[in-house]
């Protein structure tokens, strides 16, 4: 019975609740639908919390020992947890809120020669369209700058890239690996 | 080493890696594949089945076929972008290891379509908005709630502005008195004269 409920719990985590699957399982195991539903939700909760906190084997075993199940059931639960921990963690990882991310940048270089108020000018300008992605939504920002500000922008970005090469950053990256 | 077709920068590593894949295809078939890639760059439909047939002799995997299309797209559009003539392109590709017949076949295809390619790239350069069309109507106001006899001409103008990203057209409408309209027309004519001096 644990196998069935385990699969239902995992599917619920991957795709959301599936009442019809629960009804099918209830008929097969000859148990009330509500009991099955609660069982699946409880199992899903147990798996998510354990995966979220990255509980060790011993801690997991101690925690479920309190429930008073048979040894065999405890072993199956532990196996279910260990087999699916990585996948559950990656699903949980995608639930975090996301900032808009870079998609592409279009640019053009123009020279303003005259305007309504002033003729005989020479004013270079760079116009940019920054395309951003946010949760499958595409937005675009139009920006305009003169060459001096553009150079400053490039310098700042190169400095930011250069930070990765400082000892401080290198130490942190090494420790994270 | 700097290459003109890469904008006087180093050749990207992936392009270097895929040149050896290009050499696996016969030079005749490569020229035909180039023709297909050029169709795609010019906005016509690419015939993927034809490319699959042409690459089947070289026994390329599906990933390699896509890489071939990608590297040819890059070479052709980048050469057009930096206005590289076909002889320089041929010699630079040979420096990167592409065999001579392959390079000359590729460059002959490039030369035929170079100016169309550049026109197409010019057309899709960044543009904030684009005027689609102008509609106008001249009315004559007889009277209003403020004044019984108005007797003035009035111009209604509608500019249909295209937003290229979303493919939408927005209508910008306005009403002008004849004096204002005269000023607008005079200013626009001055701008047009300035533009003509640059052509």
Structural class of chain B: alpha+beta
Beta content of chain B comes to: 15-25%
SSE string of chain A, helices as H and strands as E: HHHHHEEEHH
Largest sheet of chain A: 3 strands, antiparallel
Query: Major sheet of chain B: size, sense and barrel closure?
Result: 3 strands, antiparallel
Helix content of chain A: 55-70%
Give the oligomer, counting copies of the same chain as homo and different chains as hetero: heterodimer
Spatial order of strands in the largest sheet of chain A: 1-2-3
Output mean pLDDT of chain A: 84
Largest interface: A-B, 12 and 9 residues
| Average predicted confidence as pLDDT of chain B | 89
Task: Report strand order across the widest sheet of chain B.
Answer: 1-2-3
Describe this structure in words.
- Chain B: Pfam families: COMM_domain, COMM_HN.
- Chain B: Residues 130-199 form the COMM domain.
- Chain B: This is COMD4 protein.
- The complex is a heterodimer of chains A (177) and B (199).
- By secondary structure, chain A is α+β, with helices and mostly antiparallel strands.
- Chain A has 3 domains: 1-95, no CATH class; 99-145, no CATH class; 150-176, no CATH class.
- Chain A is 59% helix and 19% strand.
- Chain A contains 7 helices and 3 strands.
- Chain A has helices at residues 2-15, 19-29, 33-53, 57-65, 71-93, 147-163, 167-176; strands spanning 101-112, 123-134, 137-145.
- Chain A has a 3-stranded antiparallel sheet.
- In chain A, helix 1 (2-15) crosses helix 3 (33-53), helix 2 packs across helix 3 and helix 3 (33-53) packs across helix 5.
- The model of chain A has no long low-confidence stretch (mean pLDDT 84).
- Chain B has 2 domains: 2-125, no CATH class; 130-198, Nuclear Transport Factor 2, Chain: A, CATH 3.10.450.
- In chain B, strand 2 and strand 3 (168-177) form a beta hairpin.
- Chain B is of the alpha+beta class and 199 residues long.
- Chain B has 7 helices and 3 strands; from the N terminus they run H-H-H-H-H-H-E-E-E-H.
- The mean pLDDT of chain B is 89.
- In chain B, strands 1-2-3 form a 3-stranded antiparallel sheet.
- The radius of gyration of chain B is 27 Å and the shape is elongated.
- Chain B is 56% helix and 17% strand.
- Classes of the chains: A alpha+beta (177), B alpha+beta (199).
- Chain A binds chain B through residues 106-108, 113-114, 116, 119, 127-129, 140, 142, and chain B through 125-128, 165, 187, 191, 194, 198.
């Amino acid at each position: 019975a644990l196998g069935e409920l385990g699969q239902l719990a995992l599917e619920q985590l991957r795709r959301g609740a599936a009442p019809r699957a629960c009804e099918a399982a209830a008929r097969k195991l000859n148990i009330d639908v509500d009991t099955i539903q609660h069982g699946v939700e409880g199992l899903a909760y147990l798996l998510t919390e354990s995966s979220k906190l990255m509980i060790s084997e011993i801690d997991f075993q101690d925690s479920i020992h309190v429930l008073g199940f048979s040894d065999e059931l405890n072993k199956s639960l532990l196996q279910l947890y260990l087999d699916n921990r990585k996948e559950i963690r990656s699903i949980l990882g995608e639930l975090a809120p996301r900032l808009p991310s870079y998609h592409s940048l279009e640019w053009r270089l123009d020279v303003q020669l005259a305007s309504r108020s002033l003729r005989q000018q020479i004013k270079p300008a760079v116009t940019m369209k920054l395309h951003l992605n946010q949760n499958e939504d595409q937005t675009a920002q139009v920006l305009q700058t003169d060459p001096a500000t553009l150079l400053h922008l490039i310098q700042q970005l190169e400095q930011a890239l250069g930070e990765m090469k400082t000892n401080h950053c290198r130490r942190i990256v090494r420790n994270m690996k | 080493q700097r290459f003109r077709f890469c904008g006087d920068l180093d050749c990207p590593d992936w392009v270097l890696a895929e040149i050896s894949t290009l050499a696996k295809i016969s030079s005749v078939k490569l020229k035909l594949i180039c023709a297909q890639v050029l169709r795609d760059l010019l906005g016509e439909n690419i015939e993927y089945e034809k490319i699959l047939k042409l690459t089947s002799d070289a026994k390329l995997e599906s990933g390699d076929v896509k890489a071939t299309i990608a590297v040819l797209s890059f070479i052709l559009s980048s050469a057009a972008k930096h206005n590289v003539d076909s002889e320089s392109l041929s010699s630079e590709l040979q420096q990167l290891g592409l065999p001579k017949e392959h390079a000359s076949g590729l460059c002959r295809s490039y030369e035929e379509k170079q100016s169309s390619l550049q026109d197409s790239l010019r057309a899709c350069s960044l543009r904030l908005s684009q005027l689609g069309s102008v509609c106008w109507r001249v009315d004559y106001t007889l009277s209003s709630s403020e004044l019984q006899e108005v007797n003035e001409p009035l111009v209604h103008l509608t500019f249909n502005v295209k937003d290229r990203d979303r493919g939408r057209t927005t209508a910008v409408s306005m009403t002008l008195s004849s004096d204002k309209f005269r000023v607008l027309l005079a200013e626009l004519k001055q701008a047009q004269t300035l533009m003509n001096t640059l052509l």
